[in-house]
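Next up, sample data:
>
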Amino acid sequence: MAAAAVQTYTPASYDHRAVDAMADVDVAALRLQELNGFDHMKSCIRDVFMKHDVDKVFGVGLLHRHYDVAPNEKIIELGPVSSPWVVGDDEVITGGAVLPHTWRVFNGELKPTEFKFVPQRELSNVDRPVFPAAFVKELIGVLQETRLDEVLGVSLYEADDPDNETMEVTYGRSSIVIPSTGLIGSKVIGPQGFDAFQAAWTFSKKEGEDVVAHHGICAAKINDGVKALHGICAAKVDDSFTARHGICAAKASEDGINARHGICAAKAAEDGMTARHGICAAKAAEGIKAYHGICAARTAQDGIKARHGICAAKVADERMTARHGICAARLANGHVMKV
């Protein structure tokens, strides 16, 4: 008698709200602990994977957000870097395709949350994952019953190199997989020594090795009033600054630096500097405000305001305002140039 065909499940379409609904990594890790998530992974969740023989196809991951994602953006992995790309609903794009590698339960369905870019020349060698319908139905039921459907998701199985422990760090709106310096207990220790949370696991048939931990993701090290709400804050505080998104590796000199988005690696010289978007690596002589883009200009006498694009101009006698594009002009005769 021929074996009965296995019914398969097709995950629902991408919905950015499934990503936006995730918690920050530290909150997600705490919730996993509160719900005894690891115990459930070793028992009822592992049982589902083993029952349907998908332990070498899928693993589980800690659901967490890295940054805000717009409705027309998808988080796509290219090499060791994952970042938001503006792409449509079709998986085929210029040069290759974007294929999902992570899913979560959202509104009772399995929805993709993160993707990987596969070059055209490699597409024929890609093994597309097959979701047995019975596996998905049972897994959704177990995750909802244990209230872990908002904490744990499904990811493609990856066989890690035990001698090459890695970790994921977030810089602005890019997440990068880098080597870690090793494990202490269940804690991943990064290059700067900040704390980390384990974020991916697979299941094993080996006795005494029910659940195998894979990549970890770093969270902030809280020190002297540095508050990290998103990403990693590896900065030191001399006066005070708050890192709300991304990484703030700046030092507060006299007046302090506020890094709200992106990376602020600037120093406050005399009047202070506020970096709200992008990167401000300029020096403040009389004060520079960087609202968007990159301001790498110096103030000579009056100051420069960079609102969009890049202002790399010098001011001789009068002031210059760069609102769009790139201003690389020099004012020597008192005229004002606007680009």
The CA atoms of residues 255 and 272 lie 5 Å apart. Residues 37-51 form the longest helix (15 residues). Confidence is low (pLDDT under 50) at residues 215-339. The chain has four helices and 28 strands.
